[in-house]
Amino acid sequence: MDTALIAVAGTLLGVIATHWFQSRAAERTAVLARDEQLRQERIAAYSAFAGAVVDYRRSQNDRWFRALQDPDSEQAEASRYASYRQRTATRQALFRVQLVCDDADTRQLAEAAFEMTNCMHEATGEEDRANRSQEAKATLDRFIAAAAPGVR
To answer: What is the CATH number of the domain that holds 70?
Structure first.
């Protein structure tokens, strides 16, 4: 009888221990899967944002040059509207960054990259435009440098 009780107790203890270890392993697997999914979402959001800022910067440069050449031309008007569309796409990409990024400094750099690019068309001369374009590029580079460690 004592042997049977010991066998039953051992079996129960084994079942409890197995269940505990399996649940811990399942939790660990779920956490790793969630972390990897978030990492992939961040990579996608950060790269989409960087691409959108590059396109927006190009669009802003084009807008500035066309307005300089002939402010009342159809090309200048089309370039202005193209920059509006690109601004919208860039802002949408910025929203994704804000949703997946948990580092306040990195979010702030993304916002600064957007704002620097957004103000480029207000340049008062070629040197000012070139400086604004370079500063927008440098701000985007700082964002990328800050975001990269979070996705490695």
So the answer is: 1.20.120
